[in-house]
């Protein structure tokens, strides 16, 4: 959820910056530099705003529309978060390495049989 809040913060700062740049352009209309910089910052705000909407929508849909506070029982028990499914190792499978080791034939090496 930190990345969602960070994207929202970037959008807010970008819109504030764009407002300042457009104000500077309105004060000195002969110089179009502030206008084009303002347009670029608005483009950044739109792109990051779209990413924010996508991440927030995904988080909303995967939580089933429920918002669980950080200290709730659902989070303390490990339920209700997308990360809890990834970190749950209670029913983890045995490593695949053991299966591969069983399939490889053993090679007996006797140092006395070595020929120079």
What are the salient characteristics of this protein?
mainly alpha, 116 residues
How would you characterize the overall build of this protein?
By secondary structure, the chain is an all-alpha fold. It has a domain at 1-64. 64% of the residues lie in helices and 0% in strands. It is built from 5 helices and no strands. Helix 1 (2-27) packs antiparallel against helix 2 (33-62). The longest helix is centred in the middle third of the chain and has 30 residues, at 33-62. The protein is elongated and about 90 Å long.
Give the SSE map.
Blueprint: H1 2-27, H2 33-62, H3 73-76, H4 82-87, H5 96-103
Cα distance spanning the termini: 65 Å
Please, what is the oligomeric state?
single chain
Shape estimate: elongated
Number of strands: 0
The portion of residues assigned to helices is 55-70%
Q: Calculate the mean pLDDT score and round it.
A: 73
In the predicted model, the low-confidence regions spanning at least 5 consecutive residues are: 71-76
Radius of gyration: 29 Å
The fraction of residues assigned to DSSP E strands is under 5%
Give the SSE string: HHHHH
């Amino acid at each position: 959820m930190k990345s969602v809040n960070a994207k929202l913060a970037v959008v807010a700062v970008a819109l504030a910056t764009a407002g300042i740049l457009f104000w500077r352009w309105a004060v000195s209309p002969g110089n179009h530099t502030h206008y084009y910089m303002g347009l670029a910052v608005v483009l950044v705000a739109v792109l990051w705003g779209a990413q924010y909407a996508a991440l927030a929508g995904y988080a909303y849909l995967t939580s089933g529309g429920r918002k669980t506070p950080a200290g709730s029982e659902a989070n303390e028990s490990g339920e209700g978060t997308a990360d809890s499914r990834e970190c749950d190792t209670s029913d983890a499978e045995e490593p695949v390495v053991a299966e591969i080791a069983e399939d490889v034939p053993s090679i007996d090496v006797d140092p006395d049989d070595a020929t120079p």
